[in-house]
Amino acid sequence: MSHCSLARSLHVLSLCLCIALARATNYEDDIDVNFGEPFYNEIPVAEATASPTDTADAADTAPCSAPDLSKWDKMFSMLENSQMRENMLLQYSDDIIKVEIDSLRQEMLRFVAQYGGSCGVAVETAGRKVSLQLESHFKDMLDQLKPCENTNVKSGGLQLEPVLQQLLSAAQSQASRLVKLESNCFGGLHSKTGFQHSNQHQEQEVASQEGMLGAALGALQQSRTELEEVLSSLKQRYLPGGCDMALLFPMRSRRIYTSVVPEVPLSLSSFTACLWVKPNGVSNKTVLLSYGSRQNPYEIELLLSHDAAQLTVGGEAHLVEASGVLKPGEVSQWIHLCGTWSSDQGKASLWVNGQRAVLISGVAEGHVIPQGGSLQLGQEKNGCCGGVPGFEEGFDRKLAFAGRMTGVNIWDRVLSEGEITQLGQIESQSCGHRGNVVAWGLTEMVPHGGAQFIH
Question: What residue ranges define each of the domains in the chain, with the CATH number in brackets?
Answer without folding.
Answer: 75-237 (no CATH), 246-454 (2.60.120.200)
